[in-house]
Amino acid sequence: MAKKKQMDEKIAKLFASPKIYKFYEMVVVLKPYLPEHVRRKSEDKVENILKRFNATVKAKAYWGKRVLAYKIAGQREGYYIIYHFKASTDSLQNIRKYLDKHAELLRYMILQMNDTSWDKLKLLVKRAVVMD
After folding, report:
1. Considering the domain boundaries, does residue 106 fall inside one?
2. What is the count of structural domains for the chain?
3. How far is residue 52's CA from residue 69's CA, in Å, rounded to a whole number?
4. Residues near 115 by Cβ (< 8 Å), separated by ≥ 6?
5. In the list 42, 48, 93, 110, which could disulfide-bond 104, CB 3.0-4.6 Å?
């Protein structure tokens, strides 16, 4: 009986789907009139959410305050931050769930990057803080 259980565990390990890691770009739009220390805490909160689900932030670009194309939550401006990170495909749903609860975020968007654009990232991102 014990041998059968061990064999079942070995078979389960063989057919278990490995975690697939991909590269993503995330645009975060914060409320525009947050004090500097609150904005920094919001950035830390976003990064902690990513780290909590084993995402690795590779680069971060500050675009600053920009005019929105349309009003979001009564705001005409937003503070933009672009994150480039690597995460498993199954962790994205959890990341989105926690970002939806973030009070200082007006909007966010996560896009999957292809591998060739990731190789050119350091050349393309202006004003980026490269983490790696």
Report:
1. yes
2. 1
3. 32
4. 23
5. 42
Q: Is 64 left (phi over 0), alpha (psi -120 to 50) or beta?
A: left
Entry pTM: 0.75
Q: State which H helix or E strand residue 92 sits in.
A: helix 92-100
Q: What is the pLDDT of residues 30-62, one digit of tens each?
A: 999 999 999 999 999 999 999 999 999 988 999
- Asked whether 55 and 91 are in contact (CB, 8 A), the reply is yes
User: Does the residue 12 lie in any domain?
Assistant: no
Task: Assign residue 121 the CATH number of its domain.
Answer: 3.30.70.60
Q: How far apart are CA 14 and CA 17, in angstroms?
A: 8
Does 15 reside within a domain?
no
Structure tokens at 16: 């278990």
The string of pLDDT tens digits covering residues 78-121 is 999 999 999 988 889 999 999 999 889 999 999 998 765 655 66
Domain extent, residue 69, equals 20-130
Joined tokens for residue 40: 């920094």
Is position 64 within any domain? yes
pLDDT digits over 22-31, tens only? 899 999 999 9
* Backbone torsions φ then ψ of 25, nearest 5 degrees: -120, 130
